[in-house]
Amino acid sequence: MSKAFLIDTTRCTACRGCQLACKEWYELPANKTKQVGTHQNPPDLNANNYKLVRFNEHLDGETITWNFFPDQCRHCIEPPCQGAADTVEEGAVIKDEATGAVIFTDKMAQFSTEDLDYVRESCPYDIPRWDAKTKRPAKCVMCIDRVREGMLPACVLACPTGTMNFGERSEMLALAKERLAKVKKDHPNAMLADQEDVSVIYLLAEAPERYHTKAVAQAPARNTRKQLFASVRSSLTSVSKS
Amino acid sequence: MTNHWIDIKNADSILIIGSNAAEHHPVSFKWVLRAKDAGATVMHVDPKFSRTSARSDFHVPIRSGTDIAFMGGMINYVLENGRYYKDYVVDYTNASYIVSEGFEFNDGLFSGYDPKSRTYDQSSWKFDLDSKGVPKKDPSLKHPRCVFNLLKKHFSRYNIENVSSVTGVSKDNLQKVYSTFSSTGTPDKAGTIMYALGWTQHTVGVQNIRSAAILQLLLGNIGVAGGGINALRGEPNVQGSTDHTLLYHIIPGYMAMPRADWQTYDAYNKANTPVSTDPHSANWWQHKPKYFTSLLKGWYGENATAKNGYCYGLLPKIEKGADHSYMFLFDRMYNNEITGGFIIGLNPMNSVPNSNKVRKALDNLDWLVTQELHHSETTDNWHRPGVDPKKVKTEVFLLPSAHRVEKEGTVTNSGRWLGWHDKAIEPEADARSFGAAFVPMMNEVRALYKEEGGKLPEAITLLNWPKTYNPEYWTRLINGQFTKDTVVKGTKYKKGQQVPSFTALSDDGSTMSLNWLYTGSYTEEGGNKAKRRNPQQTKMQANIGLYPNWAWCWPVNRRILYNRASVNADGMPLNPKKAVIKWDGKKWVGDVPDGGWKPLSSGKGKHPFIMSKHGHGQIFGPGRKDGPIPEHYEPVETPIDSHPFSKQLSSPVYKFVDSSMDKLAKPADPNFPIVLTTYSLTEHWCGGGETRNVPNLLEAEPQLYVEMSPELAEEKGIANGDGVIVESIRGKVEAIAMVTVRMRPLKVKGKTVHLVGMPFCFGWTTPGTGDSTNRLTPSVGDPNTTIPEYKASCVNIRKADKLTEIEM
Amino acid sequence: MSYTRRGFLKLTGAGVACLSLSQLGFDLTEARAYATSLKTKGAKEVITICPFCSVSCHIIAHVRDGKLISTEGDPDFPINEGALCAKGAALLSMSRNEHRIKKPLYRAPYSEKWEEKDWDWVLSKIARRVKDTRDKELIEKNDKGQTVNRLDSMFLLGTSHASNEECALIHQAMRGLGVVHMDHQARI
């Protein structure tokens, strides 16, 4: 049975406990950042931030909405990145059967810049990043080291509000359903983002683009999301299934 | 907090005002959201739409500095619409007391005002007493001079119209908050008010909080689960450092600082011990001499005897009315009246108003001792930008400080829980805890006095003072010990053993305690209770989230203060679904009750507000310096020059200092039309000394910004991300413009008023991040506390040609 | 290639944060071996308390060989239940950041630099300043002839970062010296 996250954005206060807990657990160095007129910092995911809280604000008439989106790898059920990486070298991206964690291996250090870009472009959520110098791949690994020991991922443990949840996929789906029903009372357009395709399910109170341009899967121009998943599905190696 | 963090979950209505809880006490939102899950309405009243507002049911933008108008409007609404909890008001508050003839309120001034000294003679703010000295009451609340009717009259001016025009809050929003929150004025509902520095940092700060006290008493929300007035204290151990009192005006345990006109131990006790003749008033402070004597015994040990007044004579005495707070200290320093001193774990060169002045003032010291984790604007003031160190005389000592994980001891959280932290690792390099620096430092001073003599050496040489610093030794002394063999309720205690409870403290010299409020925290029977980690609770306790066996809480492990107000005269809970305490016929169950007397109906009970002399919640509160009832006054710097409540524009008694550098903008000054409010943020702490030096936190919030509305930005030709100059009459500050729809222009008295907000955590010792925002703010303060008015001052803003303090 | 657990710990302990699985291959049994090499495994757990806001979240500090290797929220503490905000979550890097002051520093009058000193030197020097100031400036009587024993010209500012024990002893020391200008964050 694989694991899943439920990220209930309707509870998030953007305290960034998750963003920092992730950085601290993996002892990732700090980036030099600047204030450019937003609280979202660093501006984007990068080799030193596997997790980033995105801030998006809206004014509709006199109503202010401030949406927070703790962005991270979705650990896709059938990861397009794995398909893409396999075309370069099999096994460069692995999927842990027990947890469903999608993990980049150091084989990717051998990838050319074009190969890496190809892997990044395959991601419908634009998650993968690398350290430009070392080509060290960087993204959320589901705290597989912790999870295998029966511990919660660092970001989930740190979350004060119940935004970050983690457990068996079936439990998370049930919780997601329950929370969605409740949120829908006030927010009829509330939704679960791509719940069938990913292990990191976001509960959104309103249209995904009001959170982040890639809150739901964004297919490359030529493909629909379904086509995208279909196209990579065929290229999956038996490794992940073994 | 009257209640505690977990208790927030019990609220039916949560009013967050003067606080940005989700950003500054982020984990509090765990409990706010639990309440919300259970159906509570969460309201955020604040100038800025923040992360707190984002998770509240609604946000109500308000002009900074107009909270009393807002709260006064709610009090008026509650009184006019009969939304108060009548039995509670009559039984447990002083609403029925008759106020003496002579007390008056006219056009913004209470009786007894002396414009020359800018102070009140408070002698007319009193109650009529009967022949026994007990306040006269009219439980029918009909007497025209009873507190209830004076309150009604006072706040009748606070109608929706007036309140809306001053606060900038729309009438709809006022109605929405008033009607929602006042729905808790019934026994089965509770509302909590969460406030923080957004309320204290005003020239009317104390009266902001008084307005909450009055409202909560009217609604019967004090002493109950999910109720209370919950001060979200600002800093890591600020509750403990207040209890143990690194403050000038009190000594540990909330007792007055000795004064010149109280020359002897007896005079001190006489002046400070209240007397009540009401047999139903516990008048708890009648025990003060026991606590005071035990404190003196703690300080001077065996040298403190009845004969020498327990060494009271050696203590410093302040003059009546003297103010020795920051604001006045720095003014005296500026005027060359201060020689040297200590600044530890604090960055006043960033966090005290009018930084340009205080930075200059610090140069006048002969010597300065600092102890910090990192260099700060304070430790390194002598070579700040624009200053030639060769001209600065100050001798500076900078001691390396141990970090929290490198030391052990107790801290007290906002809910009064006492927690023990262990030492995880040895201090970095040569770093030391404050204790490990001050204990040997004092021993050096003591040795010098023993060797050389000097002025009043015995004040130092007679101190009860250890050779080295051992934290738990002090934890024990804080609780208190017997100084001779004693029997308490049949139990024998030997000299040197721990005192079991503050009821065992004595004024005959047989006990010592460094803080009576903590007596019971470290006992022979229970050990060091701060270390307790036992989740055990009864069903009744579990129902409202009480953890009586986890850690310990002052006083006497009582988790909800004034909890006797949560039951009726028979000791039965007013709200049985969320009972705090209950009389089971023989004893109290649930929380530790506010005094163990039988219920009031037994004839042997006591009124629930045991810390006030007469035992009732103080709707009329005569102890404050600016009036017994709150009144709206404008901030000292204000964008308007009149308001509808009175002709008294600003507080008639606010405190200020006067120097060539202490300029104030005049009311409605066209040069400074914008209201500035300052604040902390989630990722940095206070003056920023610690957190700016943590690269991972600096990454998340790297530079000083100013939040402003798109409307203001357009007016000033400023784009998001532009460098700007913010200017007050006192100084200017560079910042990055954060143009955001979360700041809304307000309509105040028919005209548009803009607000801007800035954090104050950035400073020049972290290059390129910006420098002190407090170069803008004024040295004016609350008349009771002298807390400065950081939250409302007037500025202007313009696009910068170039920035020198911030790296673009 | 074989990898001992200890070796792997060294790798992660050195702050190499990439999840290097290539040396393990993609064989999942070896990936599991990686997963079991939890960096905090077997480390001593010490309870500490977040040094920031007054919620006082409890934190578990993981210590190995006298070194702090990780910090995270204490899931048993009933108030924070393991949760921490950005500041609390950054406790590890706060305690080991490169900006920490390591030795007592001294800046002489009119000097342009700090000098490193030892504790004995600074404490005796400070004690001398305190005593000289007090002996010269202690006010024993006020204008009315009342005994006041007050040292107006010396002050203490700070700190809510101190423990209760430290606050109690600092207050006692300051009153003994006659200090009345005493204040800290509670008034900000």
From TrEMBL, chain A:
The keyword Repeat applies. Residues 3-31 form the 4Fe-4S ferredoxin-type domain. Keywords: 4Fe-4S, Iron, Iron-sulfur, Metal-binding, Repeat. GO terms for biological process: cellular respiration; formate oxidation. One of its GO terms (molecular function) is 4 iron, 4 sulfur cluster binding. It is found in: Cell envelope. PROSITE patterns: 4FE4S_FER_2. Coiled coil: none annotated. SUPFAM superfamilies: 4Fe-4S ferredoxins (SSF54862). Its main location: other. Pfam families: Fer4_11 (PF13247). One of its GO terms (cellular component) is cell envelope. This is Formate dehydrogenase.
Automatic annotation (TrEMBL), chain B:
It comes from the Bacteria. One of its GO terms (molecular function) is formate dehydrogenase (cytochrome-c-553) activity. SUPFAM superfamilies: ADC-like, Formate dehydrogenase/DMSO reductase, domains 1-3. Residues 2-433 form the Molybdopterin oxidoreductase domain. Its main location: periplasm. Keywords: 4Fe-4S, Calcium, Electron transport, Iron, Iron-sulfur, Metal-binding, Oxidoreductase, Periplasm, Selenocysteine, Signal, Transport, Tungsten. The keyword Iron-sulfur applies. Residues 675-792 form the Molybdopterin dinucleotide-binding domain. GO terms for biological process: anaerobic respiration. CDD domains: MopB_CT_Formate-Dh-Na-like (cd02792). The keyword Electron transport applies. It is found in: Periplasm. Its cofactor is W-bis(molybdopterin guanine dinucleotide); [4Fe-4S] cluster. One of its GO terms (cellular component) is periplasmic space. Belongs to the prokaryotic molybdopterin-containing oxidoreductase family. PANTHER family: FORMATE DEHYDROGENASE-O MAJOR SUBUNIT, TUNGSTEN-CONTAINING FORMYLMETHANOFURAN DEHYDROGENASE 2 SUBUNIT B. NCBIfam families: formate-DH-alph. This is Formate dehydrogenase. It comes from Halodesulfovibrio spirochaetisodalis. The lineage of its organism: Bacteria, Pseudomonadati, Thermodesulfobacteriota, Desulfovibrionia, Desulfovibrionales.
Automatic annotation (TrEMBL), chain C:
InterPro entries: Mopterin_OxRdtase_4Fe-4S_dom, MopterinOxRdtase_cofactor_BS, TAT_signal, TAT_signal_bac_arc. The lineage of its organism: Bacteria, Pseudomonadati, Thermodesulfobacteriota, Desulfovibrionia, Desulfovibrionales. This is Formate dehydrogenase. Transmembrane segments: none annotated. Signal peptide: none annotated. Its cofactor is [4Fe-4S] cluster. SUPFAM superfamilies: Formate dehydrogenase/DMSO reductase, domains 1-3. GO terms for molecular function: 4 iron, 4 sulfur cluster binding; electron transfer activity; molybdenum ion binding; oxidoreductase activity. One of its GO terms (cellular component) is periplasmic space. Keywords: 4Fe-4S, Iron, Iron-sulfur, Metal-binding, Oxidoreductase. GO terms for biological process: anaerobic respiration. Heterodimer of a large and a small subunit. Belongs to the prokaryotic molybdopterin-containing oxidoreductase family. It comes from the Bacteria. It holds the Pfam family Molybdop_Fe4S4. Residues 43-99 form the 4Fe-4S Mo/W bis-MGD-type domain. It is found in: Periplasm. The keyword Transmembrane does not apply.
